[in-house]
Specification:
mainly alpha; globular; 201 residues
Amino acid sequence: MRHVGIRFSGVEIIDLLKAWLATTLAFTVLFSGGLDAGAVGFAVLAIISALTAGVGFLLHELMHKFTANRFGVAAEFRSNDFMLVVMILIAFLGFIFAAPGAVQIYGNITRRENGLISLAGPATNIVLALIFLPFALLTGGILQAIGMYGLLINAILGAFNLIPFMGLDGQKVLAWHKGWYAGAVATAVILVAAAFTIMGA
């Protein structure tokens, strides 16, 4: 297997930090109902958002990059600054549209490699959802809150990115292997259903 060293440029690090912070802020605003939670409540929600939505986004993009590097091609994350602002603004309206940026790949790859690179992101969110699941089953406390939000957000991120539309990971995964695509979608949908069931219980 070809392999290139994992390197981060200064621009990439700044873009990752911007996207992580903007994602955290947007979800904090969403969870707080438009800044109605008070200073302490907002700070607590910011921590929860950073550990669930922020981490989910960050690891999703990093796994795209690391997998591409394993196949011997360079890859760097670039933030979409316009969409970062839009994401934060619409959070005040009570919903989220998260498109903070994407990993750009430089080099030639096969359809299989492209499929695996694309699958790495949503698969990471699925794994994170499974990690958060036991905490979501706890009774009360901040750990349960982190577990519930982490399960829900990462399950939705995994499922959403597997939609087979232009620009999303799902289109490239489906073009590579229908079996792997179906398995990933089924797992993500089951986790989304489990998250809503737990939160509604």
